[in-house]
Amino acid sequence: MRALVTGGCGFIGSHVVRSLVADGWEVINLDRMTYAANPANVAEVVRHPRYRFVQGDICDGALVRELVGVADVVLNFAAETHVDRSLLDPGVFVRTDVEGVVMLLEALRERPGTALVHMSTDEVFGSIPAPLEAREDRAFAPSSPYAASKAAAELMIRAYAETYGMAVTVVRCCNVFGPRQHLEKFIPLFTMRALAGEPMPLYGDGMQEREWLYVDDLVEAVRLVLEGLPTVAGVRAVHVGSGERVANRATAEMICDLLGRPRELITPVADRPGHDRRYALDSSRMRELGWAPRRRFVEGLAETVRWYRDHGAAWARTAQGDFARYFERQYGERLGRR
Ligand code: DAU
Questions:
Q1: So what's the architecture of 2-177+214-240 in CATH?
Q2: How far is the CA of 163 from the centre of ligand 1 (A)?
Q3: CB-ligand 1 contact for 186 (6 Å cutoff)
Q4: For ligand 1, is residue 182 a contact (CB within 6 Å)?
Q5: How far is CA 163 from the centre of its chain?
Q6: What's the CA-to-centroid distance between 186 and ligand 1, angstroms?
Q7: Active-site hit among 31, 80, 133, 146
Q8: Burial of 210 by CB count in 10 Å (0-12 exposed, 13-18 middle, 19+ buried)?
Q9: 205 contact partners, CB below 8 Å, separation of at least 6
């Protein structure tokens, strides 16, 4: 089987690329190499005969048509993914997360035999009040430009599936974490700040809950989805969540404890505007297919924190983009006016 993986140099995409190549798949990795991509993420497969890298944009219709034309399945991980950045610059989210998906759909409608697996997010539902869990048919209510761009992409997918009889799988995932996640995200950022003995900027009261899934468990879910791709026209959505929902403050404290750093480093700062309080997925559909996460949050967190302690600094040096500049823009004032 030959997969076209988009965004395969990013966090989740690269874990999937390495898993597929290791298991005998041919993989074409189409990545624009934005700030979120890191060539080190695919270093292990870069010379593999079944791996091909193409630097390019999913908004480039001609390129996408050419690559979709030689693939059996398209896995779309290419996206702008960071909520805070979507508040600073929403336009790029509309471009990559919505227009890019339309480019993929345009190419796919000419290729009825090629499947699409699209990565989406629990954020399309907005905040879920306890004790509710979001089922696959819940109405969208996105709170951020990022979440709205992912919801819009799903609506486009639905429209194409209806109009052209395409069979598409949408994987909606909770918060994924693990090695090689960009430093802008909560767990890597707090780990690196704790390691450096620097203030860890906790938004608002820190009582927002996130559902955490270790990246290897998501890869297993994606692999299971690939084993049972739908043939009937329409959108099949599946929720991939761990059920382990943890308040941000508790996660921050666990990171301090794992590293033997004082909890006083946790520094409350101005909240993220529109900050969702709680995400919670009902993942029973995936569990009925035989999927279950293997790692508890505490185990995955310990492993992740160890990885950043041992490799984080060297890995971050191979990243694209200017993280220090972003950090200043995002946190300078917040941390300055405490
Ligand atoms: O829920 C799935 C989503 O998880 C994915 O669709 C997104 O692509 C991914 O970025 C992630 O979104 P979050 O906004 O939940 O992740 P983030 O790591 O930015 O933040 C996690 C929580 O930590 C959130 O409640 C905000 C809080 N936070 C985050 C940062 C970066 C802080 O308190 N301080 C921070 O500096």
A1: 3-Layer(aba) Sandwich (3.40)
A2: 35
A3: yes
A4: no
A5: 28
A6: 6
A7: 146
A8: buried
A9: 249, 268, 271
Q: Locate the domains of the chain by residue range.
A: 2-177+214-240
Q: Enter the pTM of the model.
A: 0.98
How confident is the prediction along the chain (338 residues), in pLDDT tens digits per residue?
999 999 999 999 999 999 999 999 999 999 999 999 999 999 999 999 999 999 999 999 999 999 999 999 999 999 999 999 999 999 999 999 999 999 999 999 999 999 999 999 999 999 999 999 999 999 999 999 999 999 999 999 999 999 999 999 999 999 999 999 999 999 999 999 999 999 999 999 999 999 999 999 999 999 999 999 998 999 999 999 999 999 999 999 999 999 999 999 999 999 999 999 999 999 999 999 999 999 999 999 999 999 999 999 999 999 888 999 999 999 999 999 54
Cα of 47 from ligand 1 centre, angstroms? 34
> What is the rounded end-to-end Cα distance, in angstroms, of the chain?
54
123 catalytically annotated: yes
For ligand 1, say whether the CB of 122 is within 6 Å of any of its atoms.
Answer: yes
Give me the helices (H) in 168-320, please: 186-195, 215-227, 248-259, 284-288, 297-307, 313-317
In ligand 1, the atom with minimum distance to the C-alpha of 121 is 6
Q: Catalytic residue at 122? A: yes
3-state secondary structure of 274: coil
